[in-house]
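Format notes (please read before filing issues)

Several people have asked whether sequences and structure tokens are stored in separate files. They are not. Every record keeps both together, in the order shown below: the sequence lines, then the token lines. Line labels are part of the format and must not be stripped during preprocessing.
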Amino acid sequence: MVIDGKQPLREQLRARRKAFVDANGLAALRVHAIVIARIALTASNHAGSIAAYLSNGREVDAMPLIELACAHGVRTALPHVEGRGGAMRFLAWRPGDPLVAGPYGLPQPSTLAAEIEPDTIFTPLVGFDRLGNRLGQGGGFYDRAFARHPATRRIGLAWSVQEIDQVPTDEWDQPLHAIVTEHEWIRIEGR
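Then the structure lines:
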């Protein structure tokens, strides 16, 4: 069994994120998600195609971003994974398209959907720092996808309370180009 040294930090940041979500309520979170969506679409630098995600309830809700992108004629996709350690692909999806049950209980597009090479990947995260380092769930799906799409812009969507001074990194971790929170667009210099 491999022990992940980042796990205690994930637990601390998940508790911080939960407290933030619980304290704000659904209406305020919806407004925050809409503000984040508008900024994030601008941060994508006029992308013709984006990949986003369906929120787990405490992550920033990316649905307003997907809806806004669709309204601007941007092709949208969601992650599709086959299982633990497998590859993450980005399959075409628009609100109203069918979803199937995926690993970890996450809904995802069916394998019948077209694969998209996104110009920008919007990623959820557990924590981040101002150097663009991202602490994810620990499965490595996004880092492997980022490595397969090196020219794709990588933008994290997060609540401001998820920021920490320094995210511990490993050699396979792929930094972000930007992070968008309810308070700001953090541009990473040199990316």
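For reference, the curators noted about this record: Helices lie at 7-43, 63-71, 141-148. Residues 11-187 form a domain with the Rossmann fold fold (CATH 3.40.50.10420).
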